[in-house]
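Researcher: Before we compare anything, I want clean individual predictions. No alignment, no superposition, just each chain on its own. First chain goes here; please echo the sequence and then give the structure tokens.
Model: Echoing the first chain and its structure:
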Amino acid sequence: MWKFYIMLSSLIKKGSAMVLQVPLLSLFLTLIPEGILLILGNYVITKTEINIKKILISGFLLGISAYMIRLTRIPFGLHLVFNLILSILISIFINNISFSKAIYSSFSGLLILSALDMLITSIYLNFLGIDFKSLDSLLQNPFSRALFSLPSLITFLVFILILYIRNHQNTYKKEKGV
């Protein structure tokens, strides 16, 4: 996810409808991995049997779609709504997740990832002493921007793995009657 504070400050300066500057490097270092993690999260949250091929295809499609949406001239925040809708549709039609579960899992995954982005951005700003001006200049470099989003993606992956392990422990206990 793009960092909330930086995007908001950029929009206040430039106006509400703008083309987000998204370098191609961000597609491969941020958006596609993020898409894969969001789709994987949908599988884990809904306790659907994991299909790696479908997750990779879906995540790639979601990442490319997010990249193309961010290149359009839409008001800030609306790109998240479009990404949510695409995540739901991809979960239903490619991954065969039911409509209600796709809505719940897509919304939950996006909400968790957004919360992690805000939390980690707060850590950067408050605990590491990085101010908005330094952060804004740091994010002008596409590689730095990708590295900036890496902690939230890793934290989201850890969250998904913990949930996956927990789901399987509960399944094992039910099967053994423990």
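Researcher: Okay. Second chain, same rules.
Model: Second chain and its structure:
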Amino acid sequence: MKQHHFVREDGRWYIDLPEFLAQGGDKADLEMISGADTMLNIIAGEKDKATLQIDIEPFESANELLLNELCDPILGGGYYHINQFENKEVNQDLWLCDVTRFVFGDIPKKIYVKRIKPLPVFGEFFRPCSGMKFVKISILPYLNYLHF
């Protein structure tokens, strides 16, 4: 199972794949377009980052992308369809370019994805009431006492 990070820069989505770039790949090839960007907008919402757990084997709570059409070698990649994401109907068609072949070694018939939700920041745990004030403290001295 792989975890991949996606980043929105100037309104465009890219997969963060430094090993592809290190092997001479071009950043433009990492751009998520033709429906993949739309799907990342759904996944990330207003955030500019998204992390997905991805595999070609089903896993718990994964959402299935089904290959509809393998593209010719000139275009590369394949057209996929996802019916639902996190139990919400999306019915989204998307094209995944030939970088998919770099990631999986082939263009798989099915890809399973699951959003990895970031840990909430302090303000998402505590909503201040009117008149409440927050004092910034460091928990670093207390980390030895926390058990996870």
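Researcher: What stands out in the second chain?
Model: The chain has a mean pLDDT of 86. Additionally, The two ends are 24 Å apart (CA to CA).
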